[in-house]
Amino acid sequence: MGAVCSRKRSQLVHEDDSFQTSSRFSKTSSLKWLLLTLPRSNSDVSRKGQGKGPGRCPSLMELCVAKACEDINKYSSFSVLPRDLSQQIFNELVASNRLTETLLETFRDCALQDIDLGEYPGVNDAWMEVVASQRHSLLSVDISCSEITDSGLYLLRDCPNMQSLACNYCDMISEHGLGILSGLSNLTSLSFKRSDGITAEAMEAFANLVNLVNLDLERCLKIHGGLVHLKGLRNLESLNMRYCNNIADSDIKYLSDLTNLKELQLACCRITDLGVSYLRGLSKLTQLNLEGCPVTAACLEAISGLASLVVLNLSRCGIYGEGCENFQGLKKLKVLNLGFNNITDDCLAHLKELINLESLNLDSCKVGDEGLLHLKGLMLLKSLELSDTEVGSSGLQHLSGLRNLESINLSFTLVTDTGMKKISALNSLKSVNLDNRQITDVGLAALTSLTGLTHLDLFGARITDYGTSCFRFFKNLESLEVCGGLITDAGVKNIKDLKALKQLNLSQNVNLTDRTLELISGLTALVSLNVSNTRVSNAGLRHLKDLQNLRSLSLDSCRVTTSEVKKLQATVLPNLISVRPE
Amino acid sequence: MLRKGEAPGHQTPPHLHKDDGDDDDDAPSGFVKLISAEGFEFVVDKKAAMVSNTLRNMLTSPGGFSETREGEVRFPEISTPILEKICQYFYWSLHYSSGKETSEFQIEPEITLELMMAANYLDT
């Protein structure tokens, strides 16, 4: 059921974290996605389920809530209950996907404070009458992804105390319906992701929302010219206009007096250096995201005056060397993303004073070994992204003192086995990406001192069965990718004891057989398994029966039939939500 | 007039008391009397009563509740069948936490909401 309401979300590209690079084709998709996309039916109380062995004892309150939901058809109204109790029953019904339009009626006039129906299936105008019957009690409403229209939204005029309203992806709400917002002047948080109803004219209603602290207009493509109505919202601290690709410099002018702004998301807007210059006075700004904006290094002059800035994303902009000296002033920066720019070694010289940096992304920049010298003193660095750069083994010596480094990405670099011993003493490392054809068993053997590793990506590295013996040093591994094609069942023997593994990718190793599935049958923590393009067959599928946490299974180009895989999913592994071949 | 109600505590085999007591140094020894709106008394182990955070606060706060001294707590708003159910829950919870209980805790549909309000009051 959970998938039903995710339909719209799936169209988003970078939903949350713009500092991540997109995963490459054929590589395992984000583990985070698999862990987060839990169906609603796995709600708190039902998961705690009674009598299922050890675990925290359910409270009597939780048991009563679960029981009330179980017998929900016996009740005609909860209005006699104190509102915090009916709220708990309501929340549990939503979480377990059992709320229907009919059942909603039992909550009429219950003085509920929170109605979170975001992404809930079937929500339409008929539901809004009961929602609005909570009247002055109602403080927060989420009707994202619903079929609510202007007339449904209009009912909320009875709820003037509302502080938070989310109407993301509500296609049916037009600009004519938004006038009602002007009466909701207690709103502190308003979210209207991807709405064509938010037009420049409709935004006039926002001018009244003087208490607004958070405003989210991501992917609203008709707001150009409307930002004039925001200029009086002096309490605004967070403004998201990612992917509003009609926003131009002239719009940004109206933000210049919003001096309480702390977070400004402008990725993929049509903003140039001129637009950025209007942000000069936002002295409280801590996060600025200009990813994909047509700005140059000249905008750094204005940005360097933002003394509170902690997070700066300039990925995919037009940054060349010239003007990079302005980085020097950003002493508080902790996160800097310069990926996919024409950054050179000379530019990195201007970063060496940024001693508070914890995360630096130089993905696909024109930097090499000499540039890394300038990073030598960034002792707080935890994450360094060097994928697709010209960095080679000799450059890594400059990193050998970065004791706090937890994550390094060296995929598609010129780094070879000889470089590995230069990072082998970095004991804080948890995540290492060596997806790179020059890395072999020899390089891997140099890293066995990194016993704290939780993520190891050897996707394209030339690791053989011999090299897999190193895996026994990495007992904490949660994610492992070894897809160089040289591993056989014999090598998998060295993987079978990595009990912490949640994600395992052994695809492209064409010699793997059903024996591999038998060997890993005890890795019960696995959430994602990819053995595509191997000799795994229908007969081997039975070995997967104990992998009850498995949510994603890829068996493309294996000797399996779709029907057998479906059968496995239906009968043995009910938690599987992603299966290939489909 | 007070009448003795049936106390679930008395139904529990004695060896369980001992086991339960051993693994919690803070547990006060002895019993506490819980009195329903109608005057029924339920005598339960203090350890069981302390499954409820409200009762735990009453019974362990150093300074002051008279309940601490007299070893009895009156619930003028909780009816006898509800208080009995709550006492059963206290023991069920203790056994569940120690791994001895695997069966479900049964709640009769007709008392769910009233029990819920009492559970809310007792913070349990």
Automatic annotation (TrEMBL), chain A:
It comes from Oryza barthii. The lineage of its organism: Eukaryota, Viridiplantae, Streptophyta, Embryophyta, Tracheophyta. InterPro entries: Leu-rich_rpt, Leu-rich_rpt_Cys-con_subtyp, LRR_dom_sf, LRR_R13L4/SHOC2-like. Keywords: Repeat. Residues 228-482 form the Disease resistance R13L4/SHOC-2-like LRR domain. Signal peptide: none annotated. Transmembrane segments: none annotated. This is Disease resistance R13L4/SHOC-2-like LRR domain-containing protein. It holds the Pfam family LRR_14. GO terms for biological process: SCF-dependent proteasomal ubiquitin-dependent protein catabolic process. GO terms for cellular component: SCF ubiquitin ligase complex.
From TrEMBL, chain B:
Its main location: nucleus. The lineage of its organism: Eukaryota, Viridiplantae, Streptophyta, Embryophyta, Tracheophyta. Pathway: Protein modification; protein ubiquitination. This is Elongin-C. One of its GO terms (molecular function) is protein-macromolecule adaptor activity. Gene3D superfamilies: Potassium Channel Kv1.1, Chain A. GO terms for biological process: jasmonic acid mediated signaling pathway; ubiquitin-dependent protein catabolic process. Belongs to the SKP1 family. Residues 1-30 are annotated as: Disordered. It is found in: Nucleus. Residues 31-91 form the SKP1 component POZ domain. Pfam families: Skp1_POZ. Keywords: Nucleus. One of its GO terms (cellular component) is elongin complex.
